[in-house]
């Protein structure tokens, strides 16, 4: 695939979690290097157990296996706060091609459960046909949110900032984190490599943690050559990538990289789950002064998370995203 080799670094963070100062520095250095080059890395030696990941992915597979009418009972289109089931083609995430076909994936989104409030704030929807799905999903949500907070701490250290610099954002109890499970149906040989699981996009938030099974298909763009490179699945690992907000904070020092899911030939279904930490609606993201080199100016105006999310939801959900944004504006 092209003549350049792009290897996504695998970083073991157990030394950081042990609290040993030397190891903390080493891990922070590795994170910096990965964020400055490709903006993607894989994390192992973390706090989420393989047992929990496996139980969760098994429950996700059970959910997507339900008859369509059961899944439609908890459809995202019935939610006023963007939670629940998205059928195949519900979202179109392609920033490179206007004519692209909608994404060939189903999704199921959850966030923190709360009363209906502002944009994206409200209750989750749960399938009655699968009573244990709520318990395991929320257990997984809490565990991956915890790891997300850890990753923000590591990113802070990697930028030479106090370790708790992003805590207000990553741990805000009013945060609008999104945990979205995906199902990509098997791809027949004649469609392999051409089926768009997810179109090319960057992630809107600050930092994404993705759990993927062993099927593969996630690819990242190497911008200088325009070539795509696979993120090889590693059992138990999280693919961590920089999102748009972190790119703004760091004035492009940390890269929010285009990625996509191309479906390889497979008789197996692919399952993945992405956790996006977008902070709270009122958070304002702007260039961190120490990320400016002498003589440099901020490349982006300060951005309120709420405005940014409304814009990006409209872009990727079309009419449905617009309805959602209008609903909250009144
Ligand atoms: O399922 C995957 O591997 C990636 C999904 C993704 O990039 C996204 O949901 O933003
Ligand atoms: Fe993504």
UniProtKB/TrEMBL annotation:
One of its GO terms (molecular function) is metal ion binding. Keywords: Iron, Metal-binding, Oxidoreductase. It comes from the Eukaryota. SUPFAM superfamilies: Clavaminate synthase-like (SSF51197). Transmembrane segments: none annotated. Pfam families: 2OG-FeII_Oxy, DIOX_N. Residues 175-279 form the Fe2OG dioxygenase domain. GO terms for biological process: small molecule biosynthetic process. Belongs to the iron/ascorbate-dependent oxidoreductase family. This is Fe2OG dioxygenase domain-containing protein. It comes from Amorphotheca resinae ATCC 22711.
């Amino acid at each position: 695939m092209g003549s350049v080799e792009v290897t996504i670094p695998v970083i073991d963070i157990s030394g950081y979690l042990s609290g040993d100062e030397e190891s903390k520095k080493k891990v922070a250095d590795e994170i910096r290097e990965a964020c400055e080059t490709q903006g993607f890395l894989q994390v192992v030696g973390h706090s989420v157990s393989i047992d929990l990941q496996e139980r969760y992915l098994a429950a996700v597979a059970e959910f997507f296996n339900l008859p369509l009418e059961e899944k439609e009972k908890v459809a995202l289109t019935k939610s006023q706060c963007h939670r629940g089931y998205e059928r195949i083609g519900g979202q179109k995430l392609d920033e490179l091609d206007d004519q692209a076909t909608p994404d060939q994936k189903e999704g199921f989104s959850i966030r923190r459960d709360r009363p209906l409030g502002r944009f994206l704030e409200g209750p989750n929807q749960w399938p009655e046909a699968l009573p244990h799905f709520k318990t395991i999903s929320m257990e997984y949500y809490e565990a991956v949110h915890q790891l997300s907070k850890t990753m923000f701490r590591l990113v802070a250290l990697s930028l030479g900032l106090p370790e708790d610099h992003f805590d207000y954002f990553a741990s805000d109890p009013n945060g609008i984190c999104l945990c979205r499970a995906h199902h990509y149906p098997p791809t027949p040989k004649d469609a392999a490599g051409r089926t768009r699981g997810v179109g090319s996009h960057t992630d809107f938030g600050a930092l994404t943690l993705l759990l993927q099974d062993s099927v593969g298909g996630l690819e990242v763009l190497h911008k200088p050559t325009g070539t795509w490179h696979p993120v090889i699945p590693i059992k138990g690992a999280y693919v961590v990538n920089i999102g748009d907000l972190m790119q703004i904070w760091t004035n492009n020092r940390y890269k929010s990289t285009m990625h996509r899911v191309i479906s390889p030939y497979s008789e197996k279904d692919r399952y993945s789950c992405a956790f996006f930490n977008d902070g709270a609606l009122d958070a304002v993201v702007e260039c961190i002064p120490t990320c400016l080199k002498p003589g440099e100016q901020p490349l982006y105006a300060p951005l309120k998370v709420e405005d940014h999310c409304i814009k990006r939801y409209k872009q990727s959900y079309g009419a449905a995203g617009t309805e959602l944004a209008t609903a909250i504006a009144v």
